[in-house]
Design a protein that fits this description.
CATH superfamily of the largest domain: LarA, N-terminal domain
Shape: globular
Mean pLDDT: 95
Structural class: alpha/beta
Strand order of the largest sheet: 14-13-12-11-15
Order of helices and strands: EHHEEEHEEEHHEEHEEHEHHHEHEHEEH
CATH topology of the largest domain: Rossmann fold
Length: about 350
């Protein structure tokens, strides 16, 4: 479509929005944009520590100095591509996240992500969410012209695409995500069994914890949450491991997030937050040394064993909720009064 509008291939640059992550490998780039496009278009991976980053302004609400990728900043037209789904502390992925963190500087990203300790920074919430507000203001400063966002089903197939204004198109996609994946219950349960959705969502504990977080609202305080995740590749993130083993409690992790946010630290924060209110049982292949000593889970090798342990803790008459696709599903408690 760009070609038909008179835009030549040599005038298009694809920027992979890596945030603070490593650069995209050539085979990954080909998978992301296709064999034909990879031959025709220039592509670069954003580096958040690039000395050539451009300052575009300071966010009004939280005073975050916004530095972004120079190629992106100097482009005549800036288009964002992405997918919208639930996100730990931004509320939802997609939209403005393709600027911050995707093509932003490390200092900008760290200041934004330090806002995640707010009680409003949670999956499925945009209202008064400081992370979302800061990201949106940063994206406005970057002068985004157009976005194309998709929503996928749990098989990874595109359900619908949304195009147009930075905020309007994103919010339409958010509505569909909620229609597809937000589930309400009118009672909290003593036991919640949640699967992270199978491979690749449970390839390691770092990935699997998304399912755990999405289940918290429907478990009673003190109720047991059973996380079912194979974790063939272990813990999955060194910062996650280090912070759990070295810092060990939520308040200390929260201070470290505010002082020096590192990707992986947020997983430690949310896991420790869950442990404050719930016994957690992990059904996985993860060695007990890691699961129990470092990540503070009780362990079981089968779901039935985990359920037996949970019933011992909560009583034989306990209510059980089961969430089979926890990486996509956001389970929310809503009282009958709220529903009316």
């Amino acid at each position: 479509e760009l070609n038909s509008a008179g835009v030549k291939d040599e005038n298009v640059t694809v920027i992979f929005g890596c945030g603070t992550h490593r650069a995209v490998k050539p085979d990954e780039a080909e998978e992301l944009i296709g064999k034909e496009a990879i031959k025709r278009l220039k592509f670069v991976s954003h580096c958040c520590t690039d000395p050539e980053l451009v300052y575009v302004g300071t966010t009004k609400t939280h005073g975050n100095k916004v530095y972004i990728n120079r190629i992106f900043a100097e482009a005549d037209v800036r288009v964002l591509l992405g997918d919208v789904n639930y996100h730990y502390y931004a509320g939802y992925g997609g939209g403005r996240k393709s600027v911050l963190p995707a093509v932003s500087g490390e200092v900008t990203i760290k200041q934004n992500h330090a806002l995640m300790v707010s009680s409003n920074a949670k999956a499925g919430n945009l209202q008064d969410n400081p992370v979302h507000i800061d990201m949106t203001e940063a994206a406005r400063l970057a002068k985004v012209d157009f976005i194309l966002n998709i929503v996928e089903n749990k098989e990874g197939k595109i359900v619908r695409a949304f195009a147009g204004d930075l905020e309007a198109a994103f919010l339409e996609a958010v509505k569909l995500v909620d229609e597809m994946y937000r589930v309400y219950v009118d009672r909290r349960a003593e036991i919640v069994v949640v699967s992270s959705g199978g491979h690749p969502a449970d390839i390691n504990l770092y990935q699997a914890c998304k399912g755990l977080d999405n289940a918290l609202d429907v478990a009673k305080r003190g109720g047991v949450i059973i996380l079912v995740a194979e974790c063939l590749e272990g813990h999955g993130n060194q910062v996650f491991y280090d912070w759990m083993s070295r810092l060990g409690d939520q308040k200390t992790v929260e201070k470290e997030i505010k002082r020096n946010f590192l990707i992986g630290g947020h997983k430690a924060y949310y896991l420790l937050k869950a442990l404050q209110n719930h016994p957690l049982i992990l059904v996985s292949t993860l060695p007990d040394f890691y699961a129990t000593s470092i990540f503070k889970f009780k362990t079981a090798r089968a779901i039935n064993d985990a359920l037996n342990e949970a019933f011992k803790l909560t009583g034989s008459a306990s209510r059980v909720w089961a969430i089979p696709v926890g990486n996509y599903t956001l389970a929310i408690f809503k009282s009958p009064e709220e529903k009316t």
